[in-house]
Amino acid sequence: MRSNLENRYRRLLRVLPRWYRDEREEEMVGLFLADRTDDLDLEHGRPGWGETGATLALAVRTRLAASAAPDRAVVLGDVVRLVAMVGLLVQLSYAFRWFGQALTSTAVESPGAPAVPVAVNLVLVGGPLAMFTGHRTLAKVLAVLTALYGVVVVPLTDGPVAFLGLLWQVPMWATAAALLVGFHRDAPAPAGRPWLWACVPAAVVAADFGALTSSSAVVVFLSATAGELVPLVVIAAGAVRLVRGGSVAWTFALAVWSVLLLPVELWYLTLYLSYPSGTALTVFLAVRTAVLVVVAAALVVAGLRGLRRPPLPVTP
Amino acid sequence: MTEQTFLVLTALAEEPLHGYAIVQAVEALSEGRTRLRVGTLYGVLDRLVADGFAERDREEVHQGRLRRYYRLTDAGVRALQAEVVRLSANVAAAAFVLKARGAL
């Protein structure tokens, strides 16, 4: 008959994927209980915090596997790692733009991007560059700082900008979480060079195109759209992926990013729906949001179909 | 190579061991400094097996519990040798500097 302690350990092991438990559960339970032979302990004892933490870490490494695991676990791991890398690129693009605005004091609190202090922008830029140059631990630390800024500081902002500021943080939080869990100890180092090259278009996307014109109507239009070329880039990348095919992991990663961009997208759409004179802009935003949703759905369908085929190798 | 991996490889270098014996051997080798958690041990073993440095040996049932033994492969022996050479070179360099200062 199993003791209460053994049952508790077996419950803890449920955090591990089934394929791993099938292989290891009996062996691990034996090891857990090897030193715990006291009757009182077997009745009332519980797994320690250290064992629980180590088992949770093992669960992350096996569920988001890098190798030596079933294809689906490796694909899921690749998706999370790609979500993190794409997120860092998106973060870099926004940070470039906010950085420029902070330095030139052109930050507008509506309808453009919320004002972000220069120091925060340095962290936002530093995280991606650290990751792309192989400094994984530093990148994780900066990602945590970025997430903390969104959790602690942004909610203290007054007015409607606080809510918009929080919406902007959703992709940052997702990026930080994906970076922390996806790039675990067993995960391979990403190939830095392609991601460093991708910083160039990220900077171009961030450019303030409104400065190129003196037309106030165009400036207003661009402040709400050019600053958010990122959704258009994600839509374009998703469309290319749908047409040309490719790895399942990339397909799902782009689907995730299409969804992550939706909250801010919907906020702007709602905002401009209340402006009776902004018809063209409203139509543009409505179409862009709709296309983002369609592309996300199509990518998910394509990804699920792709899962039925043997996955292509991916190096984030 | 992490210290945990190094210690597990060293523990397995002597003879094939099961999980509990590896934990005990690592604790003894490190003079109590390193106590492997179960989740950590299997993370290390998974990596060693994936890298071809260790492989499964045999299974036994002890007091109704499964014990799976692991042994070092030839590649694992070479990896351990290389790490020993690297660490020895570091120790020699540090000892030389400390001797020059009269601190050793």
Automatic annotation (TrEMBL), chain A:
Q: Which UniProt keywords apply?
A: Membrane, Transmembrane, Transmembrane helix
- Which residue windows are transmembrane per the record? 79-100, 112-131, 138-156, 162-183, 195-212, 218-240, 247-269, 281-304
Q: Does the keyword Transmembrane apply?
A: yes
Q: Does the keyword Oxidoreductase apply?
A: no
Q: Which domain of life is it from?
A: Bacteria
Protein name stated in the entry:
Uncharacterized protein
Q: Which organism is it from?
A: Umezawaea tangerina
UniProtKB/TrEMBL annotation, chain B:
- What organism does this protein naturally occur in? Umezawaea tangerina
Domain Transcription regulator PadR N-terminal span(s) in chain numbering: 8-81
Q: What's this protein's name?
A: PadR family transcriptional regulator
